[in-house]
Amino acid sequence: MLKMGEKQAVLKSDAAIAVTKIMSKELNEKYSREIQYISNGANIYDRGDFPLQNEFGLESGGYILAVGRFIVEKGFHTLIEAFSKIDTEKKLVIVGDETGPDEYTKSLINEAGNRVIFTGFLTGTELNRLYANCFLYVLPSLVEGLPISLIEAMSFAKPVIVSDIPENLEVTEDMGVIFRRDDRRDLREKLEQMLELEEEERAEMGGRCLAKVKECYNWELITNQLEELYLKIKK
Q1: What confidence category does residue 196 fall into, taking pLDDT thresholds of 50, 70 and 90?
Q2: What distance in Å separates the CA atoms of residue 226 and residue 203, rounded to the nearest whole number?
Q3: Overall pTM surpassing 0.70 (yes/no)
């Protein structure tokens, strides 16, 4: 049913949009039709507008952040195991819905230990506070579409560590630190490397991440692309 819906949407629509270059290429080759690449974006905020409110007992720069649904494909099991092997006073904060009764969620909580904080689902200002004050951001996904949380973290000028799946690499290019997908040892090593970096080096990495968002994922660019496409269809 989903495949049929995809085919009808691509072939019967006035225009088709994909939010990643990878998806655009795949659909173009599959259906022999031009698929317009127009990404989603992120707002650019001043980090100073989001001081921590200390609801989770956190200090600015005192935690590593990850955001996503509690499903196997997000790879949080890899992150928790890698983090558990690191000698650091920093916390690991995972934002997502941990209230479900499924076995995967239970396994994450059981493996986590007292240095891991599950905040539950957060959005808006509450989530932005955590982006703005984290030490770094990690996306350990096994599978992604367009990783919005990664773009949001980069928009706060945060250095990032990501798994080496194509969708993550399309966003970060050479701006982030890359580890092998589902490789706990490699992720642990990359986390340790980042923890040992000087503040200036991490700030430089974060600055390049922000520049990438401004160049490729800003809403003004995206809305202009959408407007051009709509006007083209209207003619």
Answers
A1: very high
A2: 33
A3: yes
Q: Which stretches does DSSP call E strand in the chain?
A: 17-18, 36-37, 63-67, 91-95, 116-120, 136-139, 160-163, 177-179
Quick one: average pLDDT of 144-157?
96
Q: Of 179, 113, 107, which Cα lies nearest the Cα of 142?
A: 179
- Name the residue ranges covered by the structural domains of the chain: 2-41+218-234, 47-216
Which residue bears the tokens 């080759």?
A: 29
Do residues 64 and 136 make contact, with C-beta atoms less than 8 angstroms apart? yes
Q: For all residues of the chain together, what is the average pLDDT?
A: 92
Mapping DSSP to helix (H, G, I), strand (E, B) and coil, where does residue 52 land? coil
Distance (Å, rounded) from C-alpha 147 to C-alpha 206? 17
Fold of 47-216: Rossmann fold (3.40.50)
Q: Both tokens of residue 196?
A: 């040992």
CA 90 to chain centre: 20
